[in-house]
Predict the 3D structure of the following.
Amino acid sequence: EPEVTQTPSHQVTQMGQEVILRCVPISNHLYFYWYRQILGQKVEFLVSFYNNEISEKSEIFDDQFSVERPDGSNFTLKIRSTKLEDSAMYFCASSEQIQGAEGYTFGSGTRLTVV
Amino acid sequence: GQSLEQPSEVTAVEGAIVQINCTYQTSGFYGLSWYQQHDGGAPTFLSYNALDGLEETGRFSSFLSRSDSYGYLLLQELQMKDSASYFCAVPPTGGGNKLTFGTGTQLKVEL
């Protein structure tokens, strides 16, 4: 079964450092997303990406965040200068179309710890 | 805006039936999805209701009442492996495409 692949599975970084989280969405999917989940809380939307541009972003997705699709397969989330409160699980997801009966497919996540 | 409320925790015994409720307030509505998430794992899509009524998929069923802004996930013949968090979610409306998740319900299945 096709899956969304995320690397690394764990990342520890010092406050103020830049991190890049990587994702390979399902190949025939057109919509890509990043979500995050702070420990014990609900999954929160960060950004959606379609046709090589951001289609929607949340208030969490400030100037410290950026996304890129550098080639035909990878989808990255960059945090320019990490803060302690950025520590969370970051999930990439993709979908063939805007959410419907098929649902989104999520990757296994990257656990980011900012120290 | 969109908000979805769920009970924070439900406990049930193996073999039993459990219902996880979700009430929502949304501006526009297309349907209600359910996702399962095991500790530290990825949310996994379970079901989607666009119309009122019950949708059955094996041991799991999902119900929607649009007039009551309410839905539930029904899990039958509970197994230990069903212990997980369950989230209801609403798809985008009005041109956006973010999936908004509910507060989540942690299900504990006991022997």
User: Anything to note?
Assistant: The longest strand of chain B covers residues 18-25. Chain B is about 0% helix and 55% strand. The mean pLDDT of chain B is 91. The interface with chain A takes residues 30-31, 33, 35, 37, 40-45, 48, 50, 87, 91-92, 96-104 of chain B (CB under 8 Å).
